[in-house]
Amino acid sequence: MTRLSRRGALALLGALAGCSGANPLDSESVPPELDAAAVRAVASDSAPTVPARLPVDIGSDHLAATERRARSLLDAVPASLGPDEIPNGAIREKLRDARRRAAERLSASAEASTPFERLLAFADARAEARFAAGAWRAIDAGLTREDLAAEAETVRADRRALRERWRYVGADPVEAMLVHAAIEDRIVSGRSHIIGEPRRYRPGTSLGVGEIAEEVERARVAVEDAAHCYDRLTASLDDPVDLRPRLIDARRRLHEAFEDEQDALSSVDPREPWRIDGVDVADTPAAEALEELFRPVDPSDDDDWTDAAPAEALTWAHASFVTLAAFRSLREQVREGETFALESAADVNAVRTAAIEALRAAEASPADPALTRHATTGLADQLARADEELSIEGESVRTSWLRDDAATYLTVAARARATPAVSRRVAAALRAA
Questions:
Q1: Domain of life, per the record (predicted)?
Q2: How far apart are CA 417 and CA 52, in angstroms?
Q3: What is the Cα–Cα distance from 405 to 392, expressed in whole angstroms?
Q4: What pLDDT does 1 receive?
Q5: Residue 177 to residues 17, 26, 251, Cα–Cα distance (Å)
């Protein structure tokens, strides 16, 4: 089933209308229209925000230092760049946009409700500001790629040093797993790699130099934040325990269990995972949601956790079990005849309200809250993006253009309902290993 966004549908209809004076859709196939103001009102109601958290005490000194670095990079780029400074209008706009995004991330950090959210905002701000600062220095002072080589090598050396002393220590295995997953994300994944070659822009250009400067800064902040989180974790431990064998064993057992449960999906048509005998679900939010939920758990795609770093693999395990349970649950609702077809703004409100209630219930669940919130943070972000999509201009909107957003509410609700039980399962596997 092909997904078509509302904006894509608008563009397609506009193109069709331009090709012919006739209505490209006959009256029988035109979906009903809803009052756009009523749809906007649905999304205007408050929704839960779930800030990102990490179960480690992030120091105020580290936050202050990374903020100073972000602001110094931002200040290195003139706030007003005109034709006199940068004659090339396209390059000028790229630098302006990067500087603006960096300033926005710094503003977002002031509103962040958790230290980890501030850390994330500062990291993004530093990368954006470094791109602008690097490109500006290339224009204003002749900075080259070779000038960045020494800094890049220093970051690589710091990364190697951290990896050499890093151990999977912790007290509570669930909270330690989340902290080590954040460290892995910064120094095991590609985030801290420095290739030294621009990919978005041509080598030797000011934007190419800015891109390399951004890459170096992303790696630098990744290593600095990982080292800080690790040091704060180890400082909190009276008797550090090596949890790596426990993580690896839990990863193995959960992966085996997941593969067994995936076998139940063998009867699902991977091309049309929404198709159920006796239920006409095509072109409904339920069909879109089932397709979205099936893709990550499709048995024909081998997502082998054994190739992943041990802590990150367990976050994948959690997400995979959540999605599998969500797919089963939603498919059972569809089997019973529920398609969540949209015929009024009230129908949109119903699926959104269900998603909000499911998120709040998951947040209130006592089942390993650190692990549950690791999942619900992303779900709340998805809900917020769907709300933003419902900010529709004009007086009316076709229900077909709302299908993707309604499907997002359905997947958020299904995943949120599944999350607490999966958190208990993954936590039990870790503590029993």
A1: Archaea
A2: 19
A3: 12
A4: 43
A5: 55, 56, 11
